[in-house]
Amino acid sequence: MIVSHARKFIFLKTHKTAGTSLEIALSKYCGPEDILTPIASDEGIRREIAGIGAQNYGRPISQYGPGHYYARFIRREIPAAYTEHMRAVDARERLGEKVWNAYFKFTIVRNPFDRILSRYHWTMKTRPHLAARWGVTDLGSFIRYRADYVNENWLTYTSGDRLLVDDTVRYEHREEDLARISERIGLDHNLHEDMSRINAKGSFRPKAERSESLLGPGEIALVRGLCAAEIARFGYEPMGARSAA
């Protein structure tokens, strides 16, 4: 998540949408007073490319509880007021209505039929111990066990199925959409140019499985049900799905 007071924009970061690459690209144009939340595993890449790191995301000491004191002074961690994948409803409350309403807010969306495959392969590759603990062996069991992952992005930028952002970048058309966003936040070039040079959290999907061929009728029905509002809003459909046996 980024809150730029210098350029008056708020970027809400979603999961498995190239959000980290865009976050790094945007960081390059942020000032010392702007809020940049820590990136889980690519903070070094951001510092190298953008010349800036996480800043101004901490909770004021006046708002510390017992757990916050323990984290800050015993574990040497900064209790966060703003987090990487913070939801819009929480960011609005934290920032206040005046800032929230005055700033331009945007995020990235991605076809949920494709995104859940990316989420599945990323989890199986980087968190195999969790997959074993959950008893997840295939995409279908993953979707059923972690249904909260399927619709997580929609919950990031909505309230009661109402969009809380002013604009969206479609993952599938990000070059086109970022041209519009770039102009809106006062850049003289397309942010896509910056993003194309960044490979943060690259794809973990095996090359043989880069299509949606793993999605069968059962998996499609689950995603359709869980992401009905998102699918209706952006007109997404599964592509390359395998037919029923």
UniProtKB/TrEMBL annotation:
InterPro entries: P-loop_NTPase, Sulfotransferase. GO terms for cellular component: membrane. Pfam families: Sulfotransfer_2 (PF03567). It comes from the Bacteria. The keyword Transferase applies. Keywords: Transferase. One of its GO terms (molecular function) is sulfotransferase activity. The keyword Ribosomal protein does not apply. This is Sulfotransferase family protein.
